[in-house]
Amino acid sequence: MEIRKVQVTGGSSYIITLPKEWTKSLNIKKNDQLGLITQPNGTLLVTTEITGRQVQITKEFDVDNTTEPTCIYRCLIGAYIAGYTIIKIKSAKKMPLFVRTNVREFTDVTIGQEVVEETDTSIIIKDLLNPVEMPFNNTIQRMYIIVKNMHEDAISALKNGNKMLAEDVISRDNDVDRLHWLIARQYNMILRNANLAENMGVTLGMATNYLLISRIVERIGDHAVIIAKNVLNLIDKDIDKKIIDTVISTGNFALQIFKKSMESFLKEDIKASNENIESVKKLAPLYEEINTLALPQKGIMVISVGYIIESIGRTGEYAGDLSEVVINYLIGGKN
């Protein structure tokens, strides 16, 4: 840390000199303008980014030595989440077909990514989304609605033996993933550009809690998919109706905990969050009852019921974790 003395000029203006090495590294010259942003902890951020425009950062991939199709796809997702705004893919020879296929899949599952230039040996992907147009709070609420409906429909598919509904639940997982990746991306972009946080109306602490909430909601979505996949194994099977009824009631109870967790977040209600955490304990006896009922079942039925009840349990536990994050967010992280 460099220590600088504050000087006063004209009787009212406070002046502090800038480190020489820092000004040289950013090519700052006389009469250049700098932005000053007051942080929630009282510190002052000095930045050269004063236009409010998105900072453009580029990531390049050379695919000449890449033979594994999934590798380039994972690298593209990694670059997207890291916050790169331009992704360049190049090859010394004609671009392999699997790379072009992976690029198409990548632009399909991400938000705002489009191919803006393409030749036989190169592809350039650019981010066309203004992060300010996708506020964290709106994205979280959209994730919640999708995941809540996934869970409700997975339980409904079990109740009514609806194969198409269970399969639809599984397909919706991609929508949850792309929203979670967007929040992770925006969080990393804020780490690089404090102006973006100000433009989005959030602090770093708020962005961190949004990321934590997003991750929990995404995991609850994953368990809705597990429930739906195992419901497919039980459709048209001769399974005890009492088991089905108990699984449905337990699933609905776990869903209520999830709903209340999100409501306490949206309403900023610490008391409700705390009560919700306590309600998670009530799930344990219900698991034991279902496990006892399922023991006489055979083969795939007992295994699938086990997976379903485990995922219902994880849904309730994650909902409790969500309430804990909400309390932390409201007490400290929000500021």
Automatic annotation (TrEMBL):
Example GO molecular function term? DNA binding
Going by the entry's taxonomy, the superkingdom of the source organism is recorded as Archaea
Q: Which SMART domains match?
A: SpoVT_AbrB
Q: Taking every annotated instance into account, which residue ranges of this chain make up the domain SpoVT-AbrB?
A: 8-54
Please list which residues make up the signal peptide. Answer: none
A Gene Ontology biological process noted in the UniProt record is: negative regulation of phosphate metabolic process
Q: What is this protein called?
A: SpoVT-AbrB domain-containing protein
